Amino acid sequence: MNINNLLVKIKLLRLGHRIHRDHRTTTHCALVARAFGTSEMYYCGNEDDSLISSIEKVNESWGGDFNVTYVKSWKSFVNKCKKDGNFIILCTMYGKNIPDIEIDLRSIFKDRDIVIIIGSEKIPPELINLSDINVAISNQPHSEVAALAILLDRLFQGKQLNLKFTNSKLNIVPQEKGKSIYKL
Ligand code: SAM
């Protein structure tokens, strides 16, 4: 998927997925990542086939080819992404606050693929140095879903809100009141 002909990609890495505790939140991270224009989500922690099948069902109805993949080792994944030239952003409340760095991030995003990493439980300390930048969405603790949504919005500057998905079976006709969906 590209937004306004941006050929670079954003991938999401979700750390430490715990099947029972995180199922809903990790699914929400994937839904935000898909709806807001990233191409794929990788996750580590517990392997969870139902996570993958829920997103496949969303793609089937609402289109696009957003992909969810399990990775065993975040370290190998991040090292490989770095080697491939990706710019690694770790979302953490300890990072540089987004208003202070968003212009720099957008300029990097013009010609480099980005990997956004979000945590669940405690972030491995090693990752704090391995990432290219630690970004805070305010220096207050809150939610990975909110942090991801705001970071993507600042990177895409709202253009993601008008994304069109290919091969959708369900489509919404926006209504001021009521609900209108057409099926293809
Ligand atoms: N208790 C966990 C800890 O001590 O690391 C934090 C859990 S927090 C709900 C889960 C994830 O949300 C964090 O790992 C981080 O990626 C993201 N997050 C939470 N607040 C954030 C903030 N202010 N800025 C950026 N990311 C944030």
Describe this entry's structure for a reader.
The protein contains 6 helices and 8 strands; from the N terminus they run E-H-E-H-E-H-E-H-E-H-E-H-E-E. The longest helix is centred in the first third of the chain and has 17 residues, at 19-35. It has a 6-stranded parallel beta sheet with strand order 3-2-1-5-4-6. A two-stranded antiparallel sheet has the order 7-8. The mean pLDDT is 94. Helix 1 runs parallel beside helix 6 (144-156) and helix 4 crosses helix 6 (144-156). With 184 residues, the chain is an alpha/beta fold. It has helices at residues 19-35, 49-62, 74-83, 98-109, 125-130, 144-156; strands spanning 10-17, 40-45, 67-70, 87-97, 114-118, 133-136, 170-172, 181-183. The protein is globular, with a radius of gyration of 16 Å. The protein starts with 9 loop residues before the first strand and ends with a strand. It has a single domain (7-183), classed as 3-Layer(aba) Sandwich (Alpha/beta knot). Bound molecules: S-adenosylmethionine. Residues 91-93, 118-123, 136-138, 140-144, 147 line the site of S-adenosylmethionine.
- Look up the CATH topology: Alpha/beta knot
Domain count: 1
Ligands? S-adenosylmethionine
Q: Roughly how many Å apart are the termini? A: 21 Å
- Shape type: globular
Low-confidence stretches: none
Helical content class: 25-40%
CATH superfamily: SPOUT methyltransferase, trefoil knot domain
User: What is the CATH class designation?
Assistant: Alpha Beta
Strand count = 8
The proportion of residues in beta strands is 15-25%
Which structural category fits the helices and strands?
alpha/beta
What's the CATH architecture? 3-Layer(aba) Sandwich
Nearest-integer average pLDDT: 94
The biggest sheet, with number of strands, parallel, antiparallel or mixed sense and barrel status, is: 6 strands, parallel
